[in-house]
Amino acid sequence: MRWTSQDIKMYMQAKEYIDTIVIPLIPISLQNDASEICEMGEFTSILASELEREYKGRLLVLPAFTYLREEESFSLIERLNKWSQKLDGEGSKHVLFLTSDPQWKLNEKDLLGTLIWVPSISFTDLDKKYIEQVVKSQLKSIQTVVISLWGKEM
Q1: Pfam families, from UniProt (predicted)?
Q2: Which of 23, 61, 83, 99 is most exposed, with minimal Cβ within 10 Å?
Q3: d(Cα 107, Cα 7) in Å, to the nearest integer?
Q4: In 3-state terms, the chain is what percent helix, strand and coil (to 5)?
Q5: How do 65-68 and 114-117 pair as beta strands?
Q6: In the chain, alpha helices (H)
Q7: Residue 58 and residue 26: Cα distance in Å, rounded?
């Protein structure tokens, strides 16, 4: 399910069955690395959409947690953990953070949720079929993590 009024109505009706929240982590920068940073966000958004499509009815993809790339790690972790605590308090069993920004790996242990980092791939000048293959391949890796978390409940 996505953050749309129609999906949220369904979510509210079936909340007890939707135990996983996915939060895409999207950096923003208008410095010289803006193109690379933008590609990270695009790739993360595509993966989040595909994950939602694959598991509609089992997880909810929230709007992206956007942040300035230059922002202090401590501040980011504090803000993101507030989101996670609020979602935990509302009954979510699993909070997943999806990103292509490698900076999050440095602070993974401080997060109140599961970080899924996938290296970004530039789609510039790539064939559409190759892009689809790459996305499917990365999605399989993400699915392994998600299914593993769900398996721990049993």
Answers
A1: DUF2487
A2: 83
A3: 32
A4: 55, 20, 30
A5: unpaired
A6: 5-13, 34-54, 73-89, 128-151
A7: 23
Q: 138: burial class by Cβ within 10 Å (0-12, 13-18, 19+)? A: buried
Give residues with Cβ within 8 angstroms of 19, minimum separation 6: 58, 59, 91, 92, 93, 94
- pLDDT digit string (tens) for 4-59? 888 888 888 888 888 899 999 999 988 888 888 998 999 999 999 999 999 988 89
Q: Where do the domains of the chain lie, and which CATH numbers do they carry?
A: 5-147 (3.40.50)
Compute the distance between CA of residue 81 and CA of residue 107 in angstroms, rounded to an integer.
12
Q: CB atoms < 10 A from the CB of 128, how many? A: 8
What is the end-to-end Cα distance of the chain in Å, rounded? 23
Residue pLDDT, tens place only, 48-101? 999 999 998 889 999 999 999 999 999 999 999 999 999 998 888 899 999 999
Q: How many CB atoms lie within 10 A of CB 1?
A: 22
Q: Judge whether 112 and 79 are in contact, CB under 8 Å.
A: no
